[in-house]
Every structure is written in structure tokens, then in C-alpha cells.
Design goal:
Blueprint (H helix, E strand, L loop, with lengths): L2 H16 L5 H13 L3 E4 L6 H12 L5 E4 L6 H5 E3 L1 H14 L10 H8 L3 E3 L1 H5 L8 E5 L8 H11 L1 E3 L1 H4 L6 E5 L6 E5 L2 E3 L5 E6 L7 H6 L1 E4 L5 H12 L1 H6 L1 H13 E2 L2 H12 L7 H8 L4 E2 L2
Parallel strand pairs: 1-10, 1-11, 2-5, 5-10
Antiparallel strand pairs: 3-4, 6-9, 7-8, 12-13
Length: 303
């Protein structure tokens, strides 16, 4: 995902975060994760607000932009910590050597080596979250259950220590400091002696759709929060927070239809919001009722 795509996704999540409906159990779990410096493992069916919770907390506590790390089956720990463009740097070394009329195999001078390496390093979302700061950053590790089997355990050491080393920088002279790019667009950070170490442990929100079990050691390290599907009262509050009181009153039949369909199969709250918006909005195609029925169709079998 590019920075621009990441920002658009964060903007959409932020708008949903304004209307997020938390409860006392969720608030207590977030507070425990902050006080105990532990990741918050949030489970629940799609549409229960797992990812939105991270943006809601960041907004309520004024913790700044959420660092989003979407996980796939190919994701490794290093992807979250940092990336190093070794090939790009090697090409630049070749151009520099040619410009000085010397063999490419001849080592670059130490000053040249140190001055340009930061251009080829970029901290990932986890690495950026571990930078020294005056307040904790919010890191969203989205859908960890999609990861390789080793990633949850690989994360344990970083979560325990709150730091990591960048070997490419550790090999440089110990007194050196290097400016590197971060996961925040346009923001550069200074890394001293190749070590990134947090001063305020980030709030790490890890989401899971429950598609796999995690190792016991990983679960012990986390504060676990399971988000149930919203009941009718909470669902009404969610609709009102997003679309207003008038729309909620006019859409009672759609809310009831949604609840009946959800009892028969998997439905997300976003489907209901889209159906209401489509049903009550202006300038909607003539086959509105058919489109609404399609939106409220279950995505999968129920439990």
C-alpha cells in the first residue's frame, strides 16, 4: 500500500472513528494495554469495529496518526521494522565510482558511505512506532491471523524489549547518527548507533477474525478483547452516530431486516450503513430496492 492509499484508508477509518460506540469493557481493556505496555489483541467477526477501535483511541487520546501494518501470508517481522534498498544503493555506488573514474569494486570512502545510507532505509510501521516520542503512538497490526505461523512469536521479543537494531547501521562507526525515512509521509528520524528504542511504548492493536489459533506464549503477552456483534440497541446508536436521528427513524425497517438476515448468516455493520445511505439518499438509481437487498445479503454462513 502506498503512502497516498494508506492516508486515504486512514481518513476513511478516522471518519468512522468519530462515530465509534465503545463500552466500559472496551475502555478498560484499552487502559490495561496502555498501563501494562502490552499489545491489545482484538478478535471478532468482520464488521464489529476491530480496526476502527485503533483510530477511535488515537482520536480520543490525541495520539496522532495511526500507523497501519496490514498483514498477509508473506509478511515478516522485518517488513514491519524497516526496509533497506541494497540494490538501489549498490547502483548509486557504481555511478559514484564511475563519476570519480575508479573501479566499482573499490570501497567507497567512509564519509560517503555514512552520508547516503539513510536514503535507502525506511522504517516500517512497527519500527516507526518504536521511535522515541513524548507520547505513545498507535500501531494497528491488521489481521494477524493471515500471517505466517512464525510471525506472532517473532513479535514477542520486540514487544518485550521495545527496541530493535538495524544491522546495516550497527556496522558503521559507533559515534555515527543517520537520518532515515519513516512510515510517516515526509518525516525523517535520526537513528543513533543503529538502535531504535522507544521512550513511550506504543499502543499496539492487533486484529484477528478468529481464522486461526495463536501460540500460548503470544496470547499470554496480550490483553485480549473480543468484540461481539452489536445488539439492536447498540446498532441503532451506531446508525444514528453515522447518519443522524432522522435517517435512523426512517430506516427502522432496514435495521430489522439486517438483524433477521444476520441471524441466518454473516453480515457486517458497514453493509447496513451502505444500505440505509442508498435507500434514503438522493440521486440513487431506480432499482434501489434490488440494490438494497443485494447489500443486505449474508456474506457467509452464520454461527
Amino acid at each position: 500500500m502506498t503512502d497516498r492509499q494508506d492516508d486515504r484508508a486512514s481518513s476513511r477509518s478516522l471518519s468512522r472513528a468519530r462515530a465509534y460506540q465503545s463500552d466500559s469493557h472496551t475502555v478498560a481493556s484499552v487502559n490495561a494495554a496502555l498501563l501494562l505496555r502490552r499489545p491489545l489483541l482484538v478478535t471478532g467477526r468482520p464488521g464489529t469495529g476491530k480496526s476502527t477501535l485503533a483510530h477511535h483511541v488515537a482520536r480520543e487520546l490525541r495520539l496522532g496518526r495511526v500507523l497501519v501494518w496490514p498483514v498477509t501470508s508473506r509478511t515478516t517481522l522485518k517488513d514491519g521494522l524497516y526496509t533497506y534498498d541494497a540494490i538501489g544503493r549498490l547502483r548509486e555506488a557504481g555511478r559514484t565510482a564511475a563519476a570519480h573514474a575508479r573501479p566499482v569494486s573499490e570501497p567507497l570512502a567512509r564519509a560517503e558511505e555514512v552520508s547516503d545510507i539513510g536514503v535507502y532505509l525506511r522504517l516500517g510501521p512497527l519500527g516507526t512506532a518504536l521511535l522515541p516520542s513524548h507520547q505513545p503512538r498507535v500501531l494497528l497490526v491488521d489481521e494477524l491471523d493471515k500471517s505466517d505461523i512464525d510471525l506472532p512469536n517473532d513479535l514477542l521479543h520486540v514487544f518485550e524489549e521495545g527496541e530493535f537494531e538495524i544491522p546495516e547501521l550497527v556496522r558503521l562507526a559507533k559515534e555515527r547518527t543517520v537520518d532515515v525515512m519513516t512510515h510517516d509521509p515526509g518525516v525523517v528520524a535520526t537513528v543513533v548507533q543503529g538502535l531504535v528504542q522507544c521512550t513511550e511504548f506504543p499502543l499496539v492493536v492487533i486484529t484477528s477474525n478468529g481464522e486461526r489459533e495463536f501460540p500460548a506464549a503470544f496470547l499470554r503477552r496480550c490483553i485480549q478483547l473480543d468484540l461481539p456483534e452489536p445488539d439492536p440497541e447498540k446498532l441503532t446508536r451506531i446508525v444514528e452516530a453515522h447518519l443522524g436521528h432522522d435517517a435512523t427513524v426512517r430506516a427502522q425497517d432496514l435495521i430489522e431486516t439486517f438483524l433477521r438476515n444476520r441471524a441466518e448468516g454473516l453480515l457486517s455493520t458497514d453493509q447496513l450503513l451502505n444500505a440505509i445511505f442508498l435507500s434514503l439518499g438522493d440521486g440513487v438509481p431506480a432499482r434501489r430496492e434490488e440494490l438494497v437487498r443485494l447489500l443486505l445479503r449474508p456474506l457467509g454462513p452464520g454461527t
